[in-house]
Amino acid sequence: MVSPIRIGGMASGLDTEKIVKDLMKAEREPLNKLLRKKQQEEWKRDSYRDMNKLLYDFQRSLDSLRFASNITKKKAVSDNDSAVSVVTKSTPSLSNYSIKVNKLAQPAVPASAQLQVDPSISGSTSPIGSSFEFEIASSGGSGASKITVDANDTIDKVISKINQSGSGVSATYFNNSIVLTSSNGSTFDVKVTNGDGSKLGMGNLNNVTSSNAGTPGVGAEVEINGIKQTVSGNTFTYDGIEITLNQVTTTPSTISVKTDGDALFDTFKNFVDKYNQLIDAVNGKISEKKNKGYQPLLDEEKESLPEKTAEKLENMAKSGILQRDPILSNVLDSMRMALSSKLNGADPLFDTLSEIGITGAPNGKYAYLEKGKLYINENKLREAIEKDTDKVINLFTQYDKNDIGKTGLAQRLYDKIDIAVKQLSEKAGSTTTTTDTSVLSRNIETLNKDIKRWEDRLKDMEDRYWKKFSAMEKAMAKTQSQGTWFAKMLGGSQ
């Protein structure tokens, strides 16, 4: 709907537009409070969602620690790398393998032929100068491939035709000759069927160029755990282990599969790094300074300010939006408690994080500033892993649905975070859900309705002001008109 055109002050000389605007400025204050309140609620909702995503992502990462199948990485080691070397590709099913190499694999030598190019053709990009047709027939193929050569074709063009013919023979240009090689190991013949192919070393009509016979490949022979096996190459994968045969052996080599201590150490280090990042982020949010006297800017206020100034003022108003938030404060406390508690029933040397070398901030003057971050004593952690890997893993992965005291630290931490994630979702919702019934979203919806009612009320109020001023202008105009008439009458009677 187009707003009516209003022109005031024609009779009174008053700036009606400014008067109405000033009157409405005071009347709009309740609406402005609602708009600012809505912005604060939106900021709070978005901040909660950001924190919730951080917690949720960290919670998901705990899957690498909650389950023994995820945390345990196996590593295969050969006792004779010079004969048999190994690389772990997945989790092997056995702890030991015996491998004896009876014979190494020998690769196939492909069949080949060399066609000497006429010296008059200077390079692979020069035209051949004659037209002819020839066939390539491979002993391992299904039939002959026919290739047509035009006088304007270059050697590169002919080579491309051979490689795309599907004959099983590949061609390349080297030292003023075309070298043909069988890609499938079979012998082949090249036969000119029309014209003269002597410029490419193929001779005249019906001349046959045969390939040099290749040598077929020979597989390797090994004994794996006493069972003879034949494999096509010297490198193959067996039960999750990539095995490379380097030399023939008279006695078996032993492949031992153990828990990969380095990988386990890296898993714990990655956990501590992510945990500390989370602690920093949450602590930063609940301890963020709240700037008194700053509030969200209204649209007209933003428009009247330089962009950078408006952005700075907005950031000042946002700061401290979640200061001392109870949900975030509680999850920090519960996470610290989960990680500092003992695992009941475990070996006393492996029943807390500190026993394996993961502790809080070292005691000192500024230890309190670390606010619950974890630190790794690398030597102590590696010693614990080497001493008893299973007990270190058990500290994180043990599970007892009836006794939280006998549940591993990773599951405890997961459960504590899960409570906070649900509380934050109830408070602020999630960007991944289509229906949002969270507390803050309901608050914002209520504010939207209140804002709409106030906007309608203010529009009616402004219309009433204009009607009053318009009526005043009409009355003054009428009075002025009558005064003019009387003046004329009086002037005419004199």
Automatic annotation (TrEMBL):
It comes from the Bacteria. Residues 12-107 form the Flagellar hook-associated protein 2 N-terminal domain. Its main location: secreted. The keyword Kinase does not apply. It is found in: Secreted; Bacterial flagellum. Keywords: Bacterial flagellum, Coiled coil, Secreted. Required for morphogenesis and for the elongation of the flagellar filament by facilitating polymerization of the flagellin monomers at the tip of growing filament. Forms a capping structure, which prevents flagellin subunits (transported through the central channel of the flagellum) from leaking out without polymerization at the distal end. This is Flagellar hook-associated protein 2. It comes from Brevibacillus formosus.
